[in-house]
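Hi V.,

Quick status before I head out on leave. The structure for the redesign project is tokenized and pasted below; the design run finished overnight.
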């Protein structure tokens, strides 16, 4: 694990991920701040437009009411009725009042009051302070001097918290031909009429709108408690006196719009809930996208790092193969320029090593041929002398059949030994070679030597180095069976192992030897070799290791008095 954290691939992946994380964080922050500012500006502009639009609706409605009150105040029938002593024309004025009422469902009542206290109205029971000289009544004088609509309780005994009883009064002075005051026209509009216009303004969950006049009196607010609670009134007055703009801490927008043709100011306070929602949505979107990108980066960065380090890993693996002695390797010259250069130099080095190894192999082949010739020279004279001596002995006893069979076996033995000058032979020929050798030895030792040869016919054509069994069989006879009192058994088998290798076993029930002498046999110690035939066995073991590798060759197991088992494993 520690090696992995120190690997080039991990460091490239780590650096790439860190750079990507920082980049995503910076880009996400810049985008979030930029988009939030755009959304904030848009939200502020939208809120201002909504407040301004509502103010425009209220202005248009007030203008309409002024037109109606002006029409009634300038109506000749209204002037004539209030100016005459007999009040002629009442019916016409009442009919006009009904027309005004029908033109707007929010007009609750229309009152025409004469200077002398005379009243014409659609309401039969009026709760209003009046006298024969209305100029002494403060509300009458105020109505003459102001044409602005006001929230009034003039006609109520007390100010009720029930908004259904509230009215907005619009007054218009009535003058005669001499421009003298003769009365006042009052239009009482239901509070709900104004409320319906302003309730449509979307100012957020914490937002609200209200109307104040030039005297900082509250004209409209959807919450009736603001008309009775002095602290709340002061709060609204303070808001109306503050500068317009966006309060970042409270996330509130305050905007004022002066209503034309009145002393009213519409104040809108927007909580910009849409901004908060959009910001939250942006954060969620950025978080999802960022997590997706980070997950992608976590997946891609190792792949990217691997693609960069793959040529280096291939080069490292090729070096490991060369270290193990496998020179049949070549590294593709891909990747970055530096890695390409390394691959080129490595391939050149391997080619040079192959050339050198071929030279060495050629020299070793010549050496093996020489050693094999030496082995033949050691085997042939002694074996040939002993065999010929046996044939002579058979001839002296006139045993011609045995002479012929032994001579044929000897000829076949040498024919298989030569094998056309090749260093290799088939398993069938090798087993036949040993069979001829044992047949001859059986003729020499008679009942003192018995043998059994078994091998898998499926392995007959497999090619192996020649003369690998005869030295082992010779060693088993001369140092095992011959030293034993009584007859001896020699078993030679050849079969395929479970892991696919080929196993040769030469087993005898001779005298055996101490296990420590196994190393002497394979260790090329001259004293032991002379006693156990070590030259032949050691020669076979070295040849097998040279052909197939150090993991293959000869293993020996022996017990004194029980015999010896020699195994050869080749791939």
């Amino acid at each position: 694990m520690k090696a992995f954290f120190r690997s080039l691939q991990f460091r490239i992946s780590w650096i790439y991920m860190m750079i990507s994380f920082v980049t995503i964080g910076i880009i996400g922050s810049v985008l979030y701040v930029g988009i939030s500012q755009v959304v904030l500006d848009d939200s502020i502009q939208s809120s201002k437009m909504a407040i301004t639009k509502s103010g425009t609706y209220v202005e248009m409605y007030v203008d309409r009411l002024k037109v109606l009150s002006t029409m009634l105040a300038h109506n000749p029938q209204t002037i004539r009725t209030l100016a005459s002593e007999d009040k002629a024309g009442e019916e016409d004025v009442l009919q006009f009042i009904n027309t005004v009422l029908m033109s707007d469902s929010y007009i609750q009542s229309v009152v025409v009051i004469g200077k002398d206290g005379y009243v014409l109205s659609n309401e039969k029971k009026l709760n209003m302070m009046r006298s024969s000289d209305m100029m002494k009544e403060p509300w009458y004088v105020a109505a003459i001097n102001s044409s602005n609509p006001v929230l009034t309780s003039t006609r109520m005994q007390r100010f009720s918290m029930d908004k259904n009883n509230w009215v907005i009064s619009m007054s218009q002075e009535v003058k005669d031909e001499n421009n003298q005051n003769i009365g006042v026209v009052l239009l009482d509009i239901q509070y709900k009429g104004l409320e319906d216009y302003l309730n449509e303004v979307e100012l957020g969950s914490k937002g609200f709108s209200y109307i104040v006049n030039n005297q900082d009196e509250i004209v409209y607010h959807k919450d009736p408690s603001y008309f009775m609670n002095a602290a709340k009134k002061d709060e609204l007055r303070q808001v109306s006196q503050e500068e317009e703009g966006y309060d970042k801490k409270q996330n509130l927008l305050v905007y004022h719009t002066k209503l034309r043709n009145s002393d009213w100011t519409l104040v809108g306070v927007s909580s910009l809930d849409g901004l908060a929602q959009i910001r939250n949505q942006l954060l969620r979107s950025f978080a999802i996208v960022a997590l997706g990108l980070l997950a992608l980066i976590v997946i891609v960065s190792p792949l990217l790092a691997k693609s960069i380090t793959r040529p280096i890993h291939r080069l490292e693996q090729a070096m490991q193969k060369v270290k193990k002695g496998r020179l049949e390797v070549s590294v593709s010259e891909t990747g970055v320029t530096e890695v390409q250069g390394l691959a080129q130099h490595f391939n050149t080095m391997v080619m040079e090593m192959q050339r050198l190894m071929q030279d060495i192999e050629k020299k070793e082949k010549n050496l093996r041929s020489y050693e094999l010739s030496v082995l033949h020279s050691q085997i042939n004279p002694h074996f040939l002398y002993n065999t010929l001596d046996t044939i002579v002995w058979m001839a002296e006893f006139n045993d011609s059949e045995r002479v012929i069979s032994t001579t044929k076996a000897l000829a076949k033995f040498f024919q298989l030994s030569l094998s056309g000058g090749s260093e290799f032979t088939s398993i069938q020929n090798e087993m036949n070679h040993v069979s001829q050798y044992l047949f001859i030895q059986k003729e020499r030792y008679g009942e003192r030597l018995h043998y059994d040869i078994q091998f898998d016919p499926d392995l007959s054509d497999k090619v192996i180095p020649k003369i690998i069994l005869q030295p082992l069989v010779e060693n088993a006879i001369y140092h095992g069976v011959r030293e034993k009192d009584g007859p001896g058994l020699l078993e030679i088998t050849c079969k395929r192992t479970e892991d696919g290798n080929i196993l040769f076993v030469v087993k005898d029930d001779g005298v055996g030897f101490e296990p420590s002498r196994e190393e002497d046999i394979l260790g090329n110690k001259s004293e032991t070799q002379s006693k156990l035939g070590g030259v032949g066995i050691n020669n076979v073991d070295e040849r097998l290791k040279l052909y197939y590798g150090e993991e293959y060759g000869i293993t020996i197991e022996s017990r004194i008095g029980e015999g010896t088992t020699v195994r050869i494993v080749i791939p």
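Above is the designed sequence. The chain has 15 helices and 17 strands.

G. will cover questions while I'm gone.

Best,
W.
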